[in-house]
Specification:
CATH topology of chain B: Rossmann fold
Number of domains of chain B: 1
Structural class of chain B: alpha/beta
Radius of gyration of chain B: 18 Å
CATH class of chain B: Alpha Beta
Distance between the termini of chain B: 42 Å
Largest interface: A-B, 27 and 30 residues
Number of strands of chain B: 10
Strand content of chain A: 15-25%
Largest sheet of chain B: 6 strands, mixed
Shape of chain B: globular
Largest sheet of chain A: 10 strands, mixed
Strand content of chain B: 25-35%
Structural class of chain A: alpha+beta
Number of helices of chain B: 9
Strand order of the largest sheet of chain B: 6-7-8-3-9-10
Oligomer: heterodimer
Radius of gyration of chain A: 33 Å
Chain lengths: 845, 247
Amino acid sequence: MLRTSLRSLAQHRLRLALTVVAVVAGVGFVTGTYLFTDSLQRAFDRLFDLRQPDVTVSRQLPGQAATGGAAGGAERTLPAALVDRIAKVPGVAAAYGVVTDGSATVMTAGGEPLARLGQRTTGTSWVPNPRLRGYDLVSGRAPIGRGEVALLASTAARAGVTVGGTVRVDTPGGVIEPTVVGLVERPIAGTDGGTLVVFDLPTARRLLLEGRAQVTSVVVAAAPGIDQQRLADRITDVLPPDARAETGRSRSADLAARLQDAFTFLSTFLLAFAGIALLVAGFLIYNTFTMLVAARTRELALLRAVGASRGQVRRAVLVEAAAVGTVAAGLGLVAGIGVSGLLRRLFEAFGVDLPGGPLVVEPRTIAVALVVGVVTTVASAYLPARRAALVPPVAAMREELELPARSLRGRTLLALLLVVAAVVLARTGLQLVDDVERAAAYLGGSAVCALVALLAGAPLVGRGALRVLGAPLTRWPVGRLARENARRNPRRTAATAAALAIGLAVMSAVAVIAASTKSSVAEVVDDTVGADFIVASANLRPFTPRAYEALAGTPGTSVVTFSRAVALTLDGTQHPVIGVEPEQFAKVFKITMAQGSFADLAFGGAVVDETTAREAHLQLGQTAHVEFLNGPGRLRIDGIYQASGAAQGFVVTLPTLAAAGSLERDTAIYVRLAPGADAATVRTALEQRLAPVGAFQVLDRTELKEQIDAQFDRVFGFVYALLALAVIVAFLGIVNTLALSVHERRREIGLLRAVGTSRHQLRVMVVLESVLVAVLGGVVGILLGVLYGALLQRVLAAQGVSTLSVPVAQLGWFVAVSAAGGLLAALWPAMTAARMNLLRAIATE
Amino acid sequence: MEQTPTAARARALTKVYGAGAAQVRALDAVDVDVERGRYTAVMGPSGSGKSTLMHCLAGLDSVTSGDVWLGEVELSRLADRELTRLRRDAVGFVFQSFNLLPTLTALENITLPIDIAGRRPDPAWLDVVIDTVGLRDRLRHRPSELSGGQQQRVACARALASRPQIVFADEPTGNLDSRSSAEVLGFLRRSVAEFGQTIVMVTHDPVAAAYADRVLFLADGQVVGELREPTPERVRERLAATDPASV
């Protein structure tokens, strides 16, 4: 029997090819995800293992774990005198003070920041000892004095400068145009997409710390033979209580642990999409095997007729599946390499630069490829195999045969039960107003039930749906044939369309949430922002008061005010603290108070939003014990405001914020026009005054909304791109189904040709059938996606997604893309149908 | 189209399959004239070339050499597109099996060639055809709900519905019991008698052949005889003479 199975495989190349394609697509996406995340993790591990100072000293913030990452930052400084004290500790070979801050923006010649939003804009001071700095000098020399910098090589390349050229850098200490004297590189290329500029220590201090005699960290090299931990202990003895000495080993371990968390999230996220692709591929495989068994009924019946038992026939099909699964899993592994490259490209296209490194193929990846490939294939083949075994031997002798139509009663019952389950889960989820995660989980469960119900019930309703959807097709002479072909095997059409429906359902749900988020943001901006212009730095980082000083009193403005932000820790949770001039701020930003009055906000007090108040159990008039950057403090609750989505956390006066240890760094400046002032004139004036200060953007309300929209678009675009892979697999499924259908119907096609159907008409017929099935899947998926998107919006309403918005035009595009995909999927099967040899098609076998 | 005494004709028609040692000469310089308005049966043992002759006359298969006319049209010069149009407009087919599309009703199957051509059926003629085959109460049924004989009658109705110049029937009773066969053959006979339809039928059944006006006998790719006003007995005698093994 084994030989029969294998030989049968070899003889049916089309069958083999279609099944393999299905499995490879599914396995490729799963293994690609593993390959991608494993390789990335290895690259990051190497990155952080490579070089750490033996001991790093930095300010420890209350309520915060060890910092890791770039130590320091202008908010967290140590006295410069500490460096000498540390250098004198026995066992210290060398100690250097470092000033690092994320506010040195390297700009293009045109004055635009190089780094994209969210990427780092690091400025740091040169460390003479190569073992103590996280970069290597690759050309030129170290920067000396005010007029010189070294740049990260990739930064220089992006800015279009080489050694000897000048570059524009925006810093808290002003915009400078130093000469580039050296290029540095991090040990692994493409560390992140951010920029790095290196000054000498005095210059860094002047530009980043306003000239204060401070450092943000101290890096220490141990004398030979001194253990890192022992040295750290000794250093700790000379440190003030809020400073902390960390060994290189422990910093590496911390970083590794944090990366681990990030990667667990990333790979779970990617695997969720891989799971969707696999589910879709599972359909494809199942469908393919079902059709193949139907096509070979006669062959299987012949086996039965010559004495094969049911078990043998079943095993023959399963052995075939296992063989195909194994081969395809191997190919899928190879395809996974391509997918992993594709994922990397995708991340890069969305502005995430990733460290390079060798491809890591863990044994686990190979095991998963094999298990997924073989198990999915065999499992998908099991039901068709059982049906194959039921083929009566006499079928071999019959001229025409059709497997008996199975009853749909079981399916009806299952579908109804699942619909009930979906409704119950959704209702339960919607009642969990306060627990968004659990509510979303219930909705997710409900969506899965609905999907499976759809699959089970699709054959029941699919025929009717196809009749309606296909009505326009009857305009073509062969349109009716196309529609009836799609309707003749409801199970097959349902399974094919369902694969596409799954992908489009998720896409549509995302589209609804994206549109709702955007329109909610727009509404919040319209409701709360009273400022006519909002000024922020070009990369949205905090900036010095020089910008405010430049803008104050601009003709045509009635109000110019600003906000500053820090963080505080309350019961182990971080909250934002926004410092404002209350009287001015109230004129540019609408804060609706639930309790108390915004006018009562005074020194030592804060107003807080309802959600934070509820979660932290804060009441009007109560005093909260909090941890500021500079230590413990107290805040009196002067009022509680309605959470709006635009403002969140504690709002305090500027003196309160200063007392909490905030630097004089502004996050935004709000400008209100004087009555009768011309907006365009004022804008020009504002921009002219800002130009010498640095790179800023002046946004009116519309532009503010657009900018926020653009950020959401990037995130959602990334999700769409990942889902597109699942949709492509679904289209492959349509190709498979059509190719086999054409093969099965070759006699009908021959008959159609004999009675005068042209090749062109045949092609149209196949294409129309494909488009119809694709549009069915698309429309059903979109409807389901919109339903669950709307439900999810209700769950997220408390999180700020307060308005439901259904992006009709975008969903229309989804339908169009489905149709276009259906058309593309049909090209090859249609060509096969049109080329079919007429005589062979009608000749009786 | 102008009326000529022959509805189809072949001159020195040769059809060779394969090449080299595996070469098979299915038709060897055959000359045939199909008379208009008559019922012609083509008989011969398996492998005699009777099906190939029909396929070549109907434009379903290309010829190796020689000429074939359908009416006044010379087929070997036609491209696929023109052949398709010719089949659609001028030829009707009845096959042994797989004659109907399972997704269409009986009526839709009957009007299929007209629909594909994008034309409207002539309702009066359609009525005549449907009544002649006696399927008026079955028009809404799908093929799977019809008996074999009924299916083949639908196929005959389809072949006649577009008023083709000529109908080719390839073993139309091969899958039918004797009663259904008689129905189908009787119907074909009547369409010749009542509507002046030209029919070419390939068969190996002497009883079926006896419904025709004229029987052509083929053996080894050549026409070896002809019989007018056939009866089953005379057909059998003649067959025995050409191929003793067949009787």
